[in-house]
Amino acid sequence: MTERKWTTRRDDKRARMDSVASWLDAKVLARERVPDALHALIRSGDRVIAEGNNQKQADFLSRALADLDPERVHDLHMIQPSVGRPEHLAVFEKGIARKLDFAFSGTQSHRIGQLMMDGVIEVGAIHTYIELYARLFVDLIPRVVLTAAFKADRDGNLYTGPSTEDTPALVEAAAFSGGIVIAQANEIVDDVSQLDRVDIPGSWVDVVVEADKPFYIEPLFTRDPRHITDVQIFMAMMALKGIYAEHGVMSLNHGIGFNTAAIELLLPTYGEKLGLRGKIAKNWVLNPHPTLIPAIESGWVETVHCFGTELGMENYVAARPDVFFTGADGSLRSNRAFCQLAGHYAADMFIGSTLQMDPDGNSSTVTTSRVSGFGGAPNLGCDARGRRHATPAWANLAPGADPMARGRKLVVQMVETFQAGLKPTFVDQLDAVTVAERAKLDLAPVMVYGDDTTHLLTEEGLAYLYKAESLEERRAMIAAVAGVTPLGMNADAATTRRLREQDKVRLPEDLGVNRTEATRAQLAASSIADLVDWSGGLYEPPARFRSW
Amino acid sequence: MDTAALIARESFVERSARARVAGLLDEGTMRELLDPFERLRSPWLGLQDIVTQADDGVVIARGAIDGTAVVCAAIEPAFQGGSMGEVGGAKIAGALELALEDARAGKPVIPVLLLETGGVRLQEANCGLAAIAEIHAAIVALRAHVPVVGVITGPVGCFGGMSIAAGLCSELIVTREARLGLNGPQVIEQEAGIDEFDSRDRPMIWSLTGGAQRHACGLAETLCNDDAREIANAVSRAVAAPAREPARLRDIDTHLARLQAVDPAWRAEAAWVRTAFASKQDENGSPA
């Protein structure tokens, strides 16, 4: 019997690292050596992570990756939380990479959809973030990780600061499995004492290189209050009365849209008038949304744990360490893996929006022209079946007095019945089904499943879907608040009346929410400039959001 | 600023034209002329498949401010970008001409113009331009009798022929969100190229045409925060002031000399513009 060799991965890594050793000074690689080094460190067929987060992008390294010679390096299997840069797709068009597993594709959603349909990209799956990280430790173990930091020292210690995001999860998967970790940094310092703090220890990192320019970061969570409509304010008022107050929601995540931005800006005004301060919305898992500033300043918010950061919020966050998680240096520490876990297991509620919903309540933001992925929404927007602790809001959704009855996470879809261009939100079949067929996906990319959705809020009313006693009743409840969409027009008036009597559906008048009160005057801040005032000048909005 | 004050603060920019006027006038004195129920619509927009508005986006109202008779003309920023069409323009021109008759008859009525406009309504072209010319003439004539008060707060700003109307006012009140310029950013970019003027570079645009810059250059008399009460107070002070020709309209030679000093090959910068406006004419007629 031949002795099995137990160190093939380690040996392979050593061989690759030996081939670049002469170019390294400690762990520092000169910028002009990056093309050679990537050719030496990455082999055809490798699983490679080019760190594309929701916000931070390892764009210097991903540009270098897209410049590799496809004759020498090809058939890479890319694993990316977020596909956010043009070069992330160029590696497929050039034949450097073939397969992609990802979670979110924000700004590239149109192009990625086209490349999927054309068969240029073979998609493994469209994951939720934490599911993708989980697979990095099971069946998608990476060979090479390209990551990004604000600062590095010569020994590979990294300061990722407010933009730590996915880095710990990605780096850990490679560093402890014989993988190679290459970090770009905006600045390389000589000694660890010159780093603000160490977010990633140097022994986890193999190569550092100073980027040609600071890594790109996308201000994804800034919503200009100027664009919030009266209808969104109307729905926000219904949400506060019919959901937040009704169930005593203490811990929560908000989606990224204007609907939930409206709720954030109503807390200090309408919420205060309802006497809800201290009774709802104290503990948040949320990026530092600028629109949360008024609620924080007026004492609504106790804590916020962040997935990532938001451009312009750095000084504000650093000045509010009681609220935000900050390091010894004072700056924010974000961590998407932990924050997604928190949102899954420890939050009472997820509330977000969608582009399409089918009659059963399944919803998706994927359309035939746009494959955006879902980021954290599927994880945040589902019941945590493994949960074993009760909170009042969670327990409030338990059916009846059965000693085995369990509560539920509130999963709220807050949508207007029509989207831009007068497209009905409610459709017979999600576009996701067509996309799955055309792009040969195993699963239709559904963002939130109907059986996880506990509440549906439209401008027509609020359906308490968790109270539905059958699928048929759930459908009737959805139709009851679907307005004048084709689905809504088929709602049976007698059934809707019964659902209202049973408190399964509440219209604005049932909730005591007055349409004429739903005006922008309710917003605690009506412009970005107001948010700056609320922050005492600490919030520094990116140029594109300024109108002064 | 404490949180209670922030919540209590009411935005002027947020308000519709009608609500802006109502907020400026003494309680119970507002009387609208040619209100929406007169259904005086643009005869041109419908022909171009554009939905009209029953007041053509202009509110004219008589009333009083601190007991002084005023006539307010407010352009609705949310309708067609505040553009000046034939009807809306004629409403303002007519209101000003009536105020002129009153002034000449010894019954002064102070005009207050709330200017949120991209300028002439392109769909109505010369009809709008003709009205704007009448507005200019009326303001100049009125200024000999009464103060003519102009207010620009944003979100639209004041552009095109109406920026000249703003410049003719006895007193101009602006916020930092206001913009005042002959051409809007997109027009300049289209004409002069993106290197000269990038219409997406918002800080640059406001640094040159924003309310704070115009105030610093002496092209606007009063700079206010976007606070309805603060703006109302500024308007009421301006209404109470005597008829006058503002400094910026008196010394034409200085302005011409400043223009002479501009090399169009330079890319304008905010600080340089402020310096140029601060320069005084020396005795030889050239800027110091």
Task: Report what the structure shows.
By secondary structure, chain A is an alpha/beta fold. Chain A has 20 helices and 24 strands. In chain A, a hairpin with a 4-residue loop joins strand 22 and strand 23. In chain A, helix 3 (59-66) packs parallel to helix 4. The radius of gyration of chain A is 24 Å and the shape is globular. In chain A, 57% of the residues are buried. Chain B has 2 domains: 8-245, 2-enoyl-CoA Hydratase, Chain A, domain 1 (Alpha-Beta Complex), CATH 3.90.226.10; 251-288, no CATH class. Chain B is built from 12 helices and 9 strands. In chain B, the strands form 2 sheets. Chain B has a 7-stranded mixed β-sheet, sandwiched between helices. In chain B, strands 6-8 form a two-stranded parallel sheet. In chain B, strand 3 (68-75), helix 3 and strand 4 (110-114) form a beta-alpha-beta unit. In chain B, helix 3 packs parallel to helix 4 and helix 4 runs parallel beside helix 5 (161-168). Chain B starts with a helix and ends in a 10-residue tail after the last helix. Chain A binds chain B through residues 226, 268-269, 294, 297-298, 520-521, 524-527, 529-530, 533-534, 536, 543-548, and chain B through 1, 3, 6-7, 10-11, 13-14, 154-155, 176-177, 200-203, 206, 210-212, 226.
Share of β-strand residues of chain A? 15-25%
**First-last Cα distance of chain A:** 78 Å
CATH C-level name of the largest domain in chain B: Alpha Beta
Order of helices and strands of chain B: HHEEEHEHEEHEEHHHEHHHH
Return the structural class of chain A.
alpha/beta
Proportion in helices of chain A? 25-40%
Low-pLDDT segments of chain B: 281-288
SS class of chain B: alpha/beta
* Count of DSSP-assigned helices of chain A: 20
User: Which oligomerization state do the chains in this entry correspond to?
Assistant: heterodimer
Compute the separation of the termini of chain B in Å: 42 Å
The number of E-state strands of chain B comes to 9
Largest sheet of chain A: 10 strands, mixed
What overall geometry of chain B do the principal axes of the alpha carbons give? globular
Helical stretch count of chain B? 12
Q: What count of domains describes the coordinates of chain B?
A: 2
Q: Name the CATH homologous superfamily of the largest domain in chain B.
A: 2-enoyl-CoA Hydratase, Chain A, domain 1
User: What portion of the residues of chain B fall into strands of 2 or more residues?
Assistant: 5-15%
Strand arrangement across the biggest beta sheet of chain B: 1-2-3-4-5-7-9
